[in-house]
């Protein structure tokens, strides 16, 4: 077969000339190892295409269905657990699988209906580059999973259930004997927080370097499944669309490249990370949906005024076909977002995770859309409103509330969680830390907040606000102030899946407002007024799966 090579005798050698130049960027830093593999090339063993990277990595792709059936690094097989291969979703059916070699690049192409998937190898690199093009809903493809054999890496992280044998929720949340909880959902990281996910022994590292997620959904703060490890092995994921607590419709098109990277134990080279990885070598490979750098544009803003410098600001771009984001510079709010597909996008400025400004921006290929200084209106940041008292901070997250940090990597029943009940007194200095991050109808509904008003304050009506970041089963707050009871508010649009129990508070930020009449307040200024917060809903089941909501902040406006 044209381009195929018989398996040569392995020898220690350094890659020279063009192949060395091609692999220089990806081999920098932790990836650099003395080459010890055979010559770069591929062969056909009858069932698989066998690709030798010319470094320390040899992998096989099934000619029948496009599964990755073998992943051998320095003589050790890493692929496979439970008799399963690595693949798109849970594996494709019979597919058309082809292989081509172009100089120092080998490309394996997999076609299954409207879905196209690709594996690429570069001479002298211990990496597998992957792309997946999901064109429509006719094919289920929401992830790529690298299935890793058991016993190769030690992992007792939040996303591992190796040491947590007791199922406590939906067959995917587990408890250890010491009461700590584990689940593959407990990624702990937002998309913006990581470039690669994997394991290391100290001498060998195996990672997936994520794509830029331009065709994913949920924005920069979304949390999704990244990896897991059980008694039968582990999985590393590139999530193409994740249904848990999803806030956006699925986007279609080419995702990638994402990279399976072996290292000498350190993190993958930063040259592989989203935003720095360049793939001009792939421009002419014929990958379906591929858009080269020349066909993309950039958005740059000279600055953002009206910021609260105590917070990090992020600028996001979202359209029906793609999404992007970038950090605003702390000193002046300057930002630059490159590699953007042409089109019209909604630009959103986030204070923390709270949207405080939106605009429309159009991107054209080969050009930079330069924006004048963006002014965040004072009225767009709820923290600017004068308040009699405030609990929490308006940043679009439950940060600072009781158990908030733990909830990104543990179940609410975890032994490390403080009691979800408990009332607070304003002015105590510990209001936020004492107030629970989440409130459920069946767990801690009826929380009380005690506060005093001056005579002048008690003589007037006031607005009370409760900001939430997501809700489960239409959970929303109804309030009682002394003997005055609010109406039941309508539920805002929120994801319909689990959220609060699978490590995610990220839904749609929403602020409930209540107009409390002057007649509701106590006239005796020496007495505490009592605010009671109940979660109401006819949905949900019991305990932590009853209707619930996550709190951003609450305040009584002056």
Report on the structure:
- With 558 residues, the protein is mainly beta.
- The N terminus is likely disordered.
- The longest helix is centred in the N-terminal third of the chain and has 11 residues.
- The strands form nine sheets. It has a seven-stranded antiparallel sheet with strand order 7-8-9-10-19-16-15.
- The chain contains three helices and 38 strands.
- Strand 12 and strand 13 form a beta hairpin.
Report the structural category: mainly beta
Arithmetic mean pLDDT: 92
Content of β-strand = 35-45%
Q: What's the shape?
A: globular
Compute the separation of the termini in Å. 79 Å
Largest sheet: 7 strands, antiparallel
Number of strands: 38
Quaternary state of this entry equals single chain
Q: How many individual helices? A: 3
Rg on CA atoms, Å: 26 Å
Low-confidence stretches: 1-37
Q: Which percent range fits the helix content?
A: under 10%
Order the strands across the largest sheet as they lie in space: 7-8-9-10-19-16-15
Topology readout:
Elements lengths: L16 H11 L13 E4 L3 E5 L4 E6 L5 E6 L2 E2 L9 E2 L7 E7 L2 E8 L2 E8 L4 E8 L8 E6 L17 E4 L3 E3 L5 E3 L12 E5 L4 E5 L17 E4 L2 E7 L13 E11 L33 E5 L2 E2 L7 E6 L4 E5 L7 E6 L2 E9 L2 E10 L4 E4 L2 E2 L11 E6 L31 E2 L5 H4 L3 E3 L6 E5 L3 H4 L3 E11 L3 E6 L2 E2 L24 E7 L12 E8 L11 E10 L1
Parallel strand pairs: 20-27, 21-28, 30-32
Antiparallel strand pairs: 1-2, 2-3, 3-4, 4-5, 6-11, 7-8, 8-9, 9-10, 10-19, 11-18, 12-13, 13-14, 15-16, 16-19, 17-18, 20-24, 22-23, 22-25, 25-26, 29-38, 31-38, 32-37, 33-36, 33-38, 34-35, 34-37
